[in-house]
Write a structure and sequence with these properties.
Largest sheet: none
Strand content: under 5%
Helix content: over 70%
Order of helices and strands: HHHHHHHHHHHHH
Oligomer: single chain
Shape: elongated
Number of strands: 0
Distance between the termini: 111 Å
């Protein structure tokens, strides 16, 4: 698809919080990086125009994927995002809970580890994240005291979403199947990364190992191992966060699909009952008609009578 502002708007509208969707749009935007100014400006409008934390995180995941994968092709996106990222993080922080801030913090750590931006600039991003007050009010009890938010199960979250958002679109069966297939290749199913994490050296997971360092070279070697392990864990945790959002979205879509199918079943069952009643009426009319036909005179005897010789006329009688 060629680039235009209309096609860009359409792409953003179609963006979901699945890893496949984020990566697909990222590749398309990197291909059209000569329009990075318009793209980043539109990204920022999309971000600030939506108050849902999940949507803001999805857009930040997209920016993260673009920044990490576009560096080899040019620095257009690094410059454009640099101009607005501090304001973007401030906007995210305004509508974030602790979970959202934790995820943003992990992304900033990845940018630091991979030298996406200088350390001092990332530190400014981090300060903006933690100094911005969230507009999301903590829940209060009837007496006004704060209470810990009750953790809902995924099933309860899905039901709550269906009740509160009646406008959830019902997916096509093929789209739903694709979403389920994408989950099969999600982070929790990545056996290779899980194996790498399971086999991390003991020295990067035990603080006591620091006491055994003998010289600067050993310290530098351990530091590199710790950086590699941190980068691996941060990336994997970020993928797991995306997977959680993907699973919730898929569960909502699946529940919406099931609800729609149940509605269609109810309609079909109602229609079946209506037609069964009509069949009864037709059968009743058929039976009445049969009874009526049986009460009519026997037409065969009338036809036989019509075939007898005609009676003699008066002339014939007197001529004899």
């Amino acid at each position: 698809m060629s680039f235009s502002e209309a096609s860009l708007q359409k792409k953003f509208a179609e963006l979901t919080n699945t890893q496949q969707s984020v990566q697909t749009l990222s590749l398309w935007l990197i291909h059209h990086r000569k329009n990075s100014n318009i793209i980043v400006s539109t990204w920022f409008k999309e971000l600030t125009g939506n108050v849902k934390p999940d949507r803001k995180l999805t857009l930040l995941y997209l920016a993260n994927d673009i920044l990490q994968n576009s560096r080899k092709k040019g620095n257009e996106y690094m410059k454009e995002f640099s101009n607005i990222m501090q304001d973007a993080i401030e906007d995210i922080a305004k509508y974030s809970d602790d979970k959202t801030r934790f995820t943003v913090e992990r992304i900033l750590n990845i940018w630091k580890d991979r030298k996406i931006y200088p350390d001092e600039q990332i530190e400014k991003f981090r300060q903006k994240l933690h100094s911005t007050k969230s507009l999301i009010s903590p829940e209060k009890s009837p007496t006004g005291s704060r209470q810990d938010k009750v953790k809902l199960s995924l099933r309860e979250e899905v039901q709550k979403e269906l009740v509160e958002n009646a406008a959830i679109s019902v997916p096509e069966a093929a789209d739903l199947a694709k979403m389920l297939q994408e989950l099969e290749s999600s982070a929790s199913s990545d056996a290779l990364v899980r194996q790498k994490i399971a086999t991390l050296p003991h020295k990067v997971t035990d603080v006591e190992e620091l006491k055994k360092l003998k010289d600067r070279n050993e310290a530098l070697e351990l530091s590199k191992l710790a950086d590699d392990a941190s980068n691996l864990l941060n990336n994997y945790n970020l993928r797991l966060q995306q997977e959680l959002l993907s699973r919730k979205q898929t569960a909502v879509k699946l529940a919406s699909f099931i609800r729609d199918q149940n509605f269609e079943i109810e309609k079909d069952e109602k229609m079946i009952l209506e037609w069964q009643e009509k069949i009864k009426q037709v059968n009743l009319v058929k039976k009445e008609l049969q009874n009526h036909l049986e009460s009519l005179p026997d037409l065969t005897s009338i036809e036989e009578a019509a075939e007898l010789a005609p009676l003699p006329s008066a002339g014939d009688l007197f001529s004899n």
